[in-house]
TrEMBL record:
Identification of the protein by name: Thioredoxin family protein
InterPro entries membership: Thioredoxin-like_sf
Keywords: Signal
Transmembrane segments annotated in the record for this chain: none
Signal peptide: 1-19
Pfam families named among the record's database cross-references: Thioredoxin_7
Length: 179
């Protein structure tokens, strides 16, 4: 019994250490970045390219933020959809860097947790805030449990639903028929 207790304790400690190590050394967010300057630059670039801005708010401490970024980075269709339609920027939020001015400007998206996504038009207007929990997989794995992670189809639908073309009212006017 004592051996079992020692084994369980060792497993729990190593599991906790592994959980911490998953994001240790991964630095996709720059805590020192000027978030407002990054948003302004992305907005100006988006306006010139007839795109929107996709802001991913999160931090290097956030395993879901890192996982989402890695999924986009390794899924060609997601990467292409973002590159074709958005200026994609990361805005850091952590216990030492709250980026209060940026959070206010973006409509306090951090109220939804992390990562959270904000779509801006080429003038910097907030069009949409997406709670990332809506992008998680509903798929049930072979073990009968819900798979953990984000769903490529849901992400694609979200991204395509907020492109410049998707929100252009001209694309929804009735077509005139010859007659």
């Amino acid at each position: 019994m004592k051996n079992l207790l020692v084994l369980l304790t060792a497993v729990l400690i190593s599991g906790a250490a592994f959980g911490q190590a998953k994001t240790a050394g991964v630095h996709i967010y720059n805590p020192e970045a000027n978030a407002m300057a990054d948003i302004k630059a992305a907005t100006e670039k988006a306006a010139k390219a007839n795109k929107h801005v996709l802001v991913q708010v999160g931090g290097n401490w956030c395993t879901w933020c890192i996982a989402f970024h890695n999924l986009v980075d390794t899924t060609a269709s997601l990467k292409q959809t973002i590159n074709d339609n958005y200026e994609y920027i990361l805005v850091n939020w952590d216990k030492d860097h709250h980026n209060d001015e940026a959070m206010k400007y973006l409509g306090f998206p951090n109220r939804f947790g992390y990562p959270v996504f904000v779509v801006l038009d080429g003038k910097g207007k907030v069009l949409h805030i997406e709670n990332s929990s809506y992008l998680e997989s509903d798929e049930i794995g072979a073990n009968g449990r819900k798979k953990v992670g984000h769903d490529v189809k849901k992400i694609t639908s979200f991204l395509k639903g907020w492109t410049v073309a998707a929100v252009d009212p001209e694309n929804y006017k009735p077509k005139k028929t010859a007659g």
